[in-house]
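Task: fold both queries, return tokens.
Query 1:
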Amino acid sequence: MNLIINSDEVQVDDSVKTVEDLLSYFQLDQKVAIVELNKEILEKSKHAEVKLANGDVVEIVHFVGGG
């Protein structure tokens, strides 16, 4: 499946079906992340049920600690 993620065209494995799968695919599932799908911010509780489709536009913002 082809997605636009943070303004870059990215091909992901066919096993990625939901937003939760996508976060897991990029190893962001254990981090605090804000996800916007097609210009709509998703609540974290919806990540497991929201299906992705070819061509979806996804913005992912996650927090990085540092000093």
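Query 1 returned. Query 2:
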Amino acid sequence: MALGLGALQIVLEEGGRKDWFDSSFIIGSSLFAGVALVLFIHRQLWGERPFINLRLLASYNFGVASLAMAVFGAATFGLVFLVPNYLSLVQGYNAREIGISLIAYGMVQLLLAPLLPRLMRWLNAKLLVASGFAIMALGCWLGAHLSNDAAANVIIPSTVVRGIGQPLIMVALSVLAVKGLDKAQAGSASALISMLRNLGGAVGTALLTQLVSQRERFHSERIGEAVTMFDGALQQRLPRGLVDVQAPQVMQTLSLIDHSVRQQAYLMAYSDAFYLSCLALAACALASLLLRQKDG
């Protein structure tokens, strides 16, 4: 398990930098992770003394809750990784400004934490989980409307809304996951939930990072198709027309236009990442309504 998950983590973290399966290192690490995890699963399912009871995933509530927890981890950790990148790369924030912008994300969870036990007594746990996923999906939808001016005025409201939904999910979903399970399986259930949340976070971070990279290239190409040297609007922005494209003023203008195209492409790419997270969390909100109060 340690070797397999460790190798998988390396693949997810280094894949983007090494161009994924064009790298022999990534291919080798993937094969190693696959073999190790297959051996681990075989040992746990058919071994005499399994370390973790993987058969718990066949339980209805636990299986659905585990899948939802993995998606929750993917969206949460993935966006926690992407938001500072967006503020730094697109908006030009420094480390201090990024930290200040994200304080509200932690503060709202800190304020909500003492209220959760009371909410669990007042509200149906299933509705609490669905509400948490719906609130996080709303936060992602708010964050998907990015523009040149979309910095603190968009990102902070988005992170605050997601911060409200996050604690509602973590507590209530864990409670629903173990409904109907024997107390003797509590250790395995807790380990599986935690592992799937963290694994989902690693997968989500890699997926969203790769999505932003791929979509930035896609949007740059689409925007670039409309911005050509023969475009009338572009020619008007060139200080000396197209008479001497090597003139310093012309080259500087072209460089600024290229920078503007890439910035717009990045805005659209990050918006796509927020939209994908919104759809995934909205699907989990619907799936959580299928959870049973008593597992059967």
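Both queries returned. Flag for query 2: The chain has three domains: 1-51, 57-215+276-296, 218-263.
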